[in-house]
Amino acid sequence: MSTNSGKGPIGPQSQPQSQPQSQPPRSCDRVSVVRGDITEQHVDAIVNAANTTLLGGGGVDGAIHRAAGPELLAECRAIGGCNTGDAVITRGYQLPAKNVIHTVGPIWQGGGAGEADLLAGCYRSSLILAAKHGVRTLAFPSISTGAYRYPLEQASQIAMRTVTRHLEADPSIDEVIFVCFNERTRDAYQRALDAELPIR
After folding, report:
1. What span, in angstroms and rounded, lies between the C-alpha atoms of 24 and 55?
2. Catalytic annotation on 61?
3. Which residues constitute the domain of residue 102?
4. Sheet strands (E) in the chain
5. Could you give the 3-state DSSP secondary structure of residue 46?
6. Residue in 51, 77, 59, 75 with CA at minimum distance from that of residue 141
7. What percentage of the chain carries pLDDT values higher than 70?
C-alpha cells in the first residue's frame, strides 16, 4: 500500500527531503486495558453487550440502560432489534459518553456454531460504525463472556486480534479501551494485548 501523501510524483528530486512523514501510532499503542465501570468512561462512545431485542437485560447491558436513563430504552425500542455480530448506535443520554454502540455477542455453544466469527464481527461492526459516526475514542466491555458463557481466554484473544488489526487499517480512531469488570477479566485481556505486541 502506498504511503505517499503528497500530490506530486515520487521521483529523484523528492528523495533528499529529511523531514519524516507523520504516521499514526501503531495499533497496539492505541489500545489499553483497565479495570473499571464502563458507564463512567468519558469517551466518544461506549459499546454495550446487548441482546437481540436491544431492550436491556443483565450485566453490562442492564448497567448501561440504568445509567443512561429511560430515553435510551425508547430509542432502542424504535430501532427494533439487532442481529448477532452486528451493531447499531444510539445517543448516550445521561452517560458521560456521547454515544452507545450496541452489539450482540454469540451464545457459546461449544465452538462449532460459528461463535468465533460472530464475536469478531461484534468488534469489527462496532469499529466500522464508530468511524462512520466520527467516534475517535471508544470503550469496549468483554463481550459474551458473562451470561453467554464464551470462554474468557478465547474471547479476549479474538477481541484483541480483531481490534488491533482493524486499527492498523483505520487511523481515524485514536483510542480503544477495554474496560473490564474484575481482575480476572482484566488480566486475560492484558495477556491478549501483550501477545499482540511482539508482532504488531
Report:
1. 38
2. yes
3. 36-196
4. 31-35, 45-50, 87-91, 99-104, 137-140, 175-180
5. strand
6. 59
7. 86
First to last CA, the chain: 17
User: Which residue is listed with cell 477479566?
Assistant: 185
Residue 61 forms part of a structural domain: yes
Chain mean pLDDT for the chain: 89
Is position 29 within any domain? no
pLDDT band at 5; cut points 50, 70, 90: very low
pLDDT at 25: 58
Annotated active-site residue in 29, 37, 61, 174? 61
- pLDDT beyond 80 at 90: yes
pLDDT band at residue 200, thresholds of 50, 70 and 90?
very low
With a pLDDT cut of 90, the percent of the chain lying above it is 82
CATH assignment at residue 132: 3.40.220.10
Grid coordinates belonging to 78: 424504535
Number of domains in the chain: 1
Residue 68 lies in a domain: yes
Domain presence at residue 145: yes
Strand 87-91: give its sheet, edge to edge: 31-35, 175-180, 137-140, 45-50, 99-104, 87-91
